[in-house]
Amino acid sequence: MGQAMHNKPAGSPGRPEAESADKAHLEPTTPKVESGPVAAPSPKSAGARARFRLGDVLGGAAATGVALPQSMALGVALFTGLGFDAAAGALAGLIGAAILSLVSGLRGATIGMISAPNGPVVMLLTSGMAAVVAEGVTGDGLLLALAVILALTGIFQFLLGVSGGGQLIKFLPYPAVAGIVTSVGLSMVLSQITPLSGADAQSLGRAWIAFPGAVAVATFVAIKLMPRVLPAIPGIVSGLLVGIGLFHLGLLLAPGAGPDSWLVGRIPTIGTSTLHIDFAAFTSLPWRTIFVAAATLAVIASVDCLLTAVVADEATGERHDARGELMAQGIGQLLTGILGGVGGGGTKGSTLVAIKTGGRRWAAVVAGLTFIMLIVFLGPVGTILPISALSGVMIYVGVSLFEWHILHWLRNSHTRVDGVVALLVVATTIFYGLMDGVAVGVLGSIALLLRNLVRGPVIHE
């Protein structure tokens, strides 16, 4: 067993909710990494950890409320970008959340961690699918490619866990990772430009073109501010409800009915879903592109997952099993691909909500079972769910991924190189795409590692 996380600035514990109280965030440094063997818990402590408690039900339910809008929004963004139905994307997001949380929760390698579709995984998946589209794959062939990428990603993650390769992640320099994470957040924000363009508003008049964008902005602001008014309700839940309410209130003032494309639409059940995979197209897939996308996704998903595991450890006082967690995430990713879901990993916001609400060992299992119930019963809700409100959720999650201390690094002469590397990753993502940005991040990691080795102390015998 082991625990791992990569190099990061002191005072930045890897989550947007925490901020340093001193100036340590100006210096990218190496945090403590405990990757040695973990002592087996005593029978008494093992029994206490495994005991089911009421807090698991409350924590799992609360975490589902937080992960639900994000999972659906990411699924809608991925599928509509590929030309598929928004409702099918929402279903795929729910399937991914159910499988990932259930499999990870049953393994129990990280106490309290909730897994679901998240920004880093889905945005990289979107970039990988764009490369597949560029190879000429269309229609149902895209669903097959998506399933294969996720299945291979799961296999690679499982192998990382079995081999103990997760411990290597601690050697990734934080500036390069900060650039990648910021690029993911930026990609999430930019991906919402088209859905919010109001292109289908002709029937309502030119004045309504800005309406979807206004709803998204209102949702974003509500997510930020509503916790001050209703602290017991997660902001992402209350903010989404505000966005839904404003959308329908606005349409009451419209000269006519809003276009159907502004709504997600009835979410299909698994049995009636129009999603189907054309296995006859298997041999025509661009395998080189798929392997590169899956390998990249496996590394980034593993990094993000282990960071979330560390966040969970800080909140619970437990110690996660990195090897077991990566193996579980790999199995979950594999099943998600096979069953037509959207990939993901540990989600920091949902995890913290689950833990603060009392969730521990079985919270993720409760969340997974709750998602399965939602898949069965949530279908009609999609007919009143505006895509613009989900876009507001996407923008909020994307902005929360921005690593603002990159700007501090650029101003400090001692850390300017680190800031330049991070900024180079972001710039590459903007002009060439996220996959290229990740490639630059990997090269930057190698360069920073070599620099650190050169700066290291020399011992003379």
Search tags:
16 helices, two-stranded antiparallel sheet, 461 residues, mainly alpha, globular
Give the strand content.
under 5%
Low-confidence stretches: 1-27, 29-44
Strand order of the largest sheet: 1-2
Number of domains: 1
Strand/helix succession: EEHHHEHHHHHHHEHHHHHH
Mean pLDDT over all positions: 84
SSE topology:
Blueprint lengths: L7 E2 L18 E2 L13 H8 L3 H28 L4 H22 L7 E2 L2 H16 L5 H24 L10 H17 L20 H19 L5 H18 L34 H30 L5 H17 L6 E2 L1 H9 L6 H15 L9 H14 L4 H7 L4 H17 L1 H22 L6
Antiparallel strand pairs: 1-2, 3-4
Helix pairs in contact: 2-3, 2-4, 2-8, 2-11, 2-12, 2-13, 3-10, 3-12, 4-5, 4-6, 4-9, 5-9, 5-10, 6-13, 6-15, 6-16, 7-8, 7-13, 8-13, 9-10, 9-11, 14-15, 15-16
Question: Could you walk me through the main structural features you see in this protein, from its secondary elements to its overall organization?
Answer:
By secondary structure, the chain is an all-alpha fold. Helix 2 packs across helix 8, helix 6 packs antiparallel against helix 16 and helix 7 packs across helix 8. The strands form two sheets. A two-stranded antiparallel ribbon has the order 1-2. A two-stranded antiparallel ribbon has the order 3-4. It has one domain. The longest helix is centred in the middle third of the chain and has 30 residues. Helices cover about 60% and strands about 0% of the residues. It contains 16 helices and four strands.
